[in-house]
Write a structure and sequence with these properties.
- The chain contains seven helices and six strands; from the N terminus they run ββααβαβαβαβαα.
- It is α/β, with parallel strands linked by helices.
- A six-stranded mixed β-sheet has the order 2-1-3-6-4-5.
- α3 packs across α4.
- The longest helix has 17 residues.
Length: 213
């Protein structure tokens, strides 16, 4: 059992949040976290790199000079990959790098990533995150009150367009609802600021957690 301090938007501690770590994960599996992060990074790749083969570059296919008697090394045509301006021998072609791990493995990896942030005291819990109008200044003040001056993920329980637009222009700051958060997005920033309701969405009943593990 771990007690996590809960703060308000002014940076004052108002209560504590008791959490049994087993409701997130029995342990942190580094290999699973690595596999999940590699998958998410691979899925972000455009895969649009393209270079020309010797068949695609322009130039004559005629043999440059006779095979023997010139004193030079034997040579074929100008498109050869060993000549400047020739095609690439192992040319790159557009490809799809994306793949998918099992859904339950990714869900477990997300909870493990969250548990790792809790273990290293890099998770800051808010009692609530409410902004009445779109004001970037209000979001900056909140992060300053919480003493967050590093890369941060701000997680809300539901999609809040006012909160999102208030923080989207702040450097090194990502605003996401809990339903769209994955292990990579949790591990990438140095800090995670999350509302209590958002954290609740990741908790499993203890009996279910024990049977799953």
């Amino acid at each position: 059992m771990v007690s996590i301090p809960v703060y308000n938007m002014s940076g004052d501690q108002v209560e504590t949040f008791d959490l049994d770590e087993r409701e997130l994960a029995e342990h942190i599996n580094i290999k699973l976290l690595h596999e999940a992060v590699v998958m998410y990074q691979a899925n972000l790749r455009q895969g649009s790199a393209k270079t020309k083969t010797r068949a695609e570059v322009s130039g004559s296919k005629k043999k440059m000079y006779r095979q023997k008697g010139t004193g030079n090394a034997r040579a074929g045509h100008r498109r050869s990959g060993v000549r400047r301006g020739g095609g690439h021998i192992f040319a790159k072609a557009p490809r799809d790098f994306s793949y998918r791990l099992p859904r339950k493995a990714l869900q477990t990896a997300t909870r493990m990533a969250l548990l790792s942030k809790i273990d290293k005291s890099n998770l800051i819990l808010l009692d609530e995150l409410t902004i009445n109008e779109i004001k970037t200044k209000r979001m900056i003040e909140m992060l300053a009150n919480l003493k967050v001056d590093v890369s941060v993920l701000v997680a809300t329980d539901t999609y809040d367009v006012i909160v999102y637009k208030s923080g989207r222009n702040i450097p090194r700051t990502t605003i996401l609802p809990a339903a769209e958060i994955n292990a990579y997005q949790i591990l990438k920033p140095q800090k995670v600021v999350m509302t209590k309701k958002a954290l609740e969405t990741f908790r499993r009943p203890l009996r279910e957690a024990q049977s799953a593990e």
